[in-house]
Amino acid sequence: MAERVVPESERRRRRPTKQGAVLSERLIVETALRLVAQHGAEALSVRRLGAALGADPSAIYRYFHNTDALLLTLADELVGRAQEGWAPTGDWRADLRAIGLRIHASYRSNPQAALLAAHRTTGRVHETEAVETILGVLRSAGFPDPLAVRMYHAFVDQALAFAAQDAAALALPQAALEADTEVWNTVYGKLSATTHPNIAATFPLLAADMRDSGYPFALELILDAMAARRPATSGPGGSGGGKQEGAAG
């Protein structure tokens, strides 16, 4: 794609597209997410977007430098959706739990886009708002800045890593997903207690637990670890450190 982006004030297309819609950045992003959900990474092309929008592909140049710029916007959109409706409670654990689960859910609801975007750093408005909010929760809980930064890093990487892994599974063809799930019964369920005593002893629990994401429990583990490192002078709730910034979303 070309490397020219038209200023915001000059972007709007005056004539509707063939579908009767007025082209905008929002419409392009929503259409791109829909196409990626249906067709995967190969759908993220100017030609396909133009066809889906009923517009000349060159019109998309007015909004995005290239397909990577569009991808970063899609990534930021997923972060933004995770923040919609969130508000701080003042309880740092509850707030981080809600943020983590929202990030995870947003990526799981858009698995094909998550595969392309979970590892990217966008520097865009929703991502910067999320960084500010999470650091605000940690600092207001009384964690000193060096520890708050390390915890932010671990917290976000954990959420995104699980989101990417779970999204990859959800993006599999249905037959492959079902086959992977059935392995627990066809292989692990038939292992002998003589050769694999630990698997045999725990198999019913193991098979049941592996049907779902490990993220919610892993999130509780990291929250427990954070609590163990929280300065003793901090109160039981969220106060005791830097001032928490406004809620994301």
Structure description:
The protein has 249 residues and is mainly α. The protein has helices spanning 8-11, 25-39, 46-53, 67-83, 92-108, 111-117, 125-140, 145-170, 174-186, 197-209, 215-229. α5 packs parallel to α8. The longest helix has 26 residues, at 145-170. It is flat, with a radius of gyration of 22 Å.
Summarize the structure.
With 249 residues, this protein is mainly α.
Task: Set down the secondary structure blueprint.
Elements: H1 8-11, H2 25-39, H3 46-53, H4 67-83, H5 92-108, H6 111-117, H7 125-140, H8 145-170, H9 174-186, H10 197-209, H11 215-229
Helix pairs in contact: 2-3, 4-5, 4-6, 4-7, 5-7, 5-8, 5-11, 6-8, 7-8, 8-11
In which range does the helix fraction lie?
55-70%
Individual helix count: 11
Write the element-wise H/E pattern from the N-terminal end onward: HHHHHHHHHHH
Q: If you consult CATH, what is the topology of the largest domain?
A: Tetracycline Repressor, domain 2
